[in-house]
C-alpha cells in the first residue's frame, strides 16, 4: 500500500474522509475510453485515480494532484460529476470530476515508487472491471452514462461545502438493473 511521509488525512464534519478523484478521458465527449490505474494495495485490480485531500486543499485541486501522482497525466479539469459516499467500511466522501487528458508522462511518481500501471478502457469494460472489487468507482461511470453529458449545462465546477446535496450513495442505486443506474 502506498504511504506518504507526513500524510495528513482530512475529515468533514460528519467524520467522512475527504477524497477527490477524476474520470480521465481522451476527449471532451467522455464516451470513448477512460483511464484506470492499478491499485497500490492489490496491483492486479484496476481503480479510478484519486485519493485523500490535504488540509486547506480544494476538491478540484486535490483531484488534479491525485491524477498526476497516480496516473501520470495532466489535463483540463472539467465539471464536478458528483460527490459519492462510501459508508459501510471506510466512510469516504469523494468529489469526482471529469478531466480531459492533454499530456501523458512516460514516468510518474507512482510508476517509479510503487510500480503502478495505467490503462485505457472502453467505458463499458471499465464498469465491468470496477464492479468486481470497487463498485463505488463503477458508480461514477454509471452516473456519467445516465445522461450527465458535458452538454447538460453543468459545465462549471462549483466549490461545495461538506453538507451539500449532491451525494450519491450505494443505497440510491442498489436494486436497479445496471443498465439504468
Automatic annotation (TrEMBL):
Entry's Gene Ontology molecular function annotations: bis(5'-adenosyl)-hexaphosphatase activity; bis(5'-adenosyl)-pentaphosphatase activity; diphosphoinositol-polyphosphate diphosphatase activity; endopolyphosphatase activity; metal ion binding; snoRNA binding
Q: Which GO terms describe its biological process?
A: adenosine 5'-(hexahydrogen pentaphosphate) catabolic process; diadenosine hexaphosphate catabolic process; diadenosine pentaphosphate catabolic process; diphosphoinositol polyphosphate metabolic process
Instruction: Tell me what reaction this enzyme catalyses.
Output: diphospho-myo-inositol polyphosphate + H2O = myo-inositol polyphosphate + phosphate
Q: What is its EC number?
A: 3.6.1.52
Keyword check for Metal-binding: yes
SUPFAM superfamilies referenced in this protein's UniProt entry, alphabetically: Nudix (SSF55811)
Record keywords? Cytoplasm, Hydrolase, Magnesium, Metal-binding, RNA-binding
Q: Where is the Nudix hydrolase domain?
A: 17-145
Q: Which Gene3D superfamilies match?
A: Nucleoside Triphosphate Pyrophosphohydrolase (3.90.79.10)
Needed cofactors: Mg(2+); Mn(2+)
Its principal location? cytoplasm
Instruction: From the Swiss-Prot or TrEMBL record, state where the protein is found.
Output: Cytoplasm
Q: List, alphabetically, the PANTHER family matched.
A: DIPHOSPHOINOSITOL POLYPHOSPHATE PHOSPHOHYDROLASE, DIPHOSPHOINOSITOL POLYPHOSPHATE PHOSPHOHYDROLASE 2-RELATED
Family statement drawn from the similarity comment of this UniProt entry: Belongs to the Nudix hydrolase family. DIPP subfamily.
**Can you say what this protein is called?**
diphosphoinositol-polyphosphate diphosphatase
* Organism name: Loxodonta africana
Amino acid at each position: 500500500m502506498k504511504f506518504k511521509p507526513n500524510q495528513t488525512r482530512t475529515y468533514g464534519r460528519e467524520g467522512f474522509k475527504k477524497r477527490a478523484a477524476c474520470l480521465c478521458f481522451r476527449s471532451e465527449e467522455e464516451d470513448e475510453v477512460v483511464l484506470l490505474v492499478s491499485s497500490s494495495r492489490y496491483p492486479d485490480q484496476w481503480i479510478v485515480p484519486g485519493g485523500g485531500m490535504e488540509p486547506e486543499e480544494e476538491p478540484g485541486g486535490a483531484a488534479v494532484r491525485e491524477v498526476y501522482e497516480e496516473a501520470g497525466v495532466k489535463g483540463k479539469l472539467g465539471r464536478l460529476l458528483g460527490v459519492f459516499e462510501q459508508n459501510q467500511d471506510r466512510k469516504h466522501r469523494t468529489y469526482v470530476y471529469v478531466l480531459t487528458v492533454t499530456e501523458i508522462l512516460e514516468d510518474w511518481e507512482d510508476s517509479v515508487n510503487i510500480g503502478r500501471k495505467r490503462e485505457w478502457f472502453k467505458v463499458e469494460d471499465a464498469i465491468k472491471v470496477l464492479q468486481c472489487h470497487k463498485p463505488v468507482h463503477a458508480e461514477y461511470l454509471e452516473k456519467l452514462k445516465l445522461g450527465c453529458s458535458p452538454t447538460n449545462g453543468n459545465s462549471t465546477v462549483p466549490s461545495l461545502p461538506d453538507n451539500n446535496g449532491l451525494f450519491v450513495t450505494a443505497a440510491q442505486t442498489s436494486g436497479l438493473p445496471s443498465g439504468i443506474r
